[in-house]
C-alpha cells in the first residue's frame, strides 16, 4: 500500500469512527498512535486532520491537537433549526442538476442501504444512509450549500446513532419507511420533480425528528413520584 493509500485509509477510518460514535464528539485524536496504526509519519497524519477539519469531522486546536468535532447543545439546536431548509434545498437542486452517473450512484447507495437494513447493524445502516444523502449533496452541486450539508450529515448520523434503539419495533418500522422514502426521492429526482423531492425531504425529516424526540422526551412514568402508595411500597413515609 502506498503512502497515499494509507492516508486515504486513515481518513476513511476516522470518518467512519466519528459518524458511528466509535470516536465520540470532542474526543482527542492521538496522532502518534494513528500514525503507527497506518504506517504514517506525523506530517501526513496532520494533513489528514487538516482535510477532515475542512469537512467538519475534526476540529484543530492550537497547541492542543485535534479532536472529533464537538456536538454541544447549541450545535444541536442549530441543527434542528437549519436541517429542514438545507435538506429541502439539496433535494430540489439534485432534481434539477442530476447526471446519469450520479443517479446510478444514488441507486447503488440505496441498494447498500437496503442491504444494511436486512443484515447490518446500526453502524452499517448509519454509514449507508450517510452515503445515500451525500450523493444527493453531490448532485445538488452548489458550493454554498455543500459545506453546511456536509456538517449536517455528520451530526445527523451521530444524533441518530445516539437515539436509535435496534430492539424497538417502532424504530424498525421507521427504517422501513425511510427506505421507501429513499426510493420515492430517487423517482422524483430522476423525473426532475422538484416539488415532489422537496415534499419528500419534509416527510423524511419529520420521520427522523420524531424518532429522536421519542428518546429525548420519553413518556412519563405511570405513577407520580409523589403517589403515597408508590412511596409506601418503597419504604418511604
Could you walk me through the main structural features you see in this protein, from its secondary elements to its overall organization?
The protein is 73% helix and 3% strand. It is built from ten helices and two strands. The protein has a two-stranded antiparallel sheet with strand order 1-2. Helix 4 packs across helix 7 and helix 6 (122-140) runs antiparallel to helix 7 (146-163). The chain is globular and about 50 Å long. The model has no long low-confidence stretch (mean pLDDT 89).
Q: Which descriptors would you attach to this protein?
A:
two-stranded antiparallel sheet; single chain; 237 residues; globular; 10 helices; mainly alpha
Distance between the termini: 70 Å
Return residue spans where pLDDT drops below 50 for at least 5 consecutive residues: none
Order of helices and strands: HHHEEHHHHHHH
Number of strands: 2
Biggest sheet, strands in spatial order?
1-2
Query: What is the percentage of strand-forming residues?
Result: under 5%
The largest pleated sheet is described as:
2 strands, antiparallel
User: Which structural class best describes the helix and strand composition?
Assistant: mainly alpha
Helix run count: 10
